[in-house]
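Side project, low priority. Logging it here so it doesn't get lost.
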Amino acid sequence: MKKQFFSIALAAALFFGPQVFADEKDFNVSGCAGFQFTRLQAWKFWGGYQFPRNYNNVVIDLIVDRTITPHFSIHAGVEAFMWFNTHDLVSGKFGLYQPAMGENSAYLFQAENVLTFDEDNLFRIPNDVFKGEIHMGYFPYKYNPDVRNLGEYLFRSGTYPGWLRTISFVPEARLTGLLISTTAFNTWKNDLLVTTEMDMYPFYDLSYTLISSIKVGRVLDIGGGIDLSRLTPANGKLTRREKDQNNNPCPFYMKNLVTVWDTIAGTLDTISGDTAGYYTFAGTKIMGRLSIDLKGFLPEGAASIFGENDGKIYGEFDILGLENQGDYYKKLSERIPVTFGFNVPTFKLFDVLSCEFEYYTNPYPNNYRFQVMAMLPKYGGTPAPDDQTDYENGFTKIPGIDYNWSWYQHDSWKWSVYFKKSIGKNYSIRGLAARDHLRNMSNSLTARDYDESLTKTNQWYWALRFISTW
């Protein structure tokens, strides 16, 4: 009851509070309201096959922008979300059954300060030569403008383990920290980010990222980046795990170093020869992307019959950890998701109609259960992938559920089809059909399935989202 009251009170404050400033020219309120219908055609929950199911949610976004000076502004955004569990909950501890229940949530999705520098500031450099922005706080971030669903994995991924995550109709990350973004000659863009981990345990680790992109004429857009993920841990013992989920030492052995794990003494001893290291969540990620706009090969007059996004071919690859680790992470090729897509020409019938594909040979489940459960001392947790076999440590096996890797034998390929159609200035319809990295919605930490829901070729969903903006 308290949670529902808080959500209603917060929503009321968001909608009526800004009216106090509504007459100020440096104050702007915008947002959107939407309804989404989702049809899960085939999916799984904790290894068990699930029958088709409808799933609805409602979302309201409110964004408040306040200009303090011509070069300094504040942006705050709050989202209210009404959603349902996509599955019925079964408590193994008490043997209870709980049907899918509705939930109301309200939370921040943006809270940032922005400093801009352009030709009107003290540098007096023309905008077409050099301009930039400094963002500090919590902000949405997207480095690949073409991606509609599959991709953007420099931030929407783990390093060790190399899980991937997608959220329907939200193809960007939300980051906390500092962003310095510059653009030279309207073609060469560079982003430097220092971010703190606020989304996935271990929390508060610092990462350092550099992303650069350049446009070549009307045809080519090339980009690349490097992310030193969790380079500065908040707590080294949490990021570099010395114990596994069963509270046992979890070293791995490497060549040509000078320490080794002493299994009798339980210590790392300095000797010559091989060494033992520890699995770590930290690592180096690499990203490269390419976009080709086929309209750029046409005269501008002929290209005008096409929509802005028509005819684009694009792709992205990400390396989730350059370094090998122990028995799990021996092959670099198993840590490289590759995505590519094509925008089908619709001659302005749709804003965009994209088809995207992904190939990722990770042999392990796309599951971050061990990483999430690492925050609970009872369960432990390591940077090792969830092998879907250890359900003895605090988890109860449910009869009829497949606890092996048979779900993942044909799981290297993913696909997605997306469209957007604007109707007037303030209304749009968006559609998505996909076999992506969808996960079940749940309000239970221990009963939640942290594995993706669509792992066999016949498992997929489609969704429609109706959005009005103001």
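Brief comment: Residues 2-241+279-469 form a domain with the Porin fold (CATH 2.40.160.10).
Revisit when time allows.
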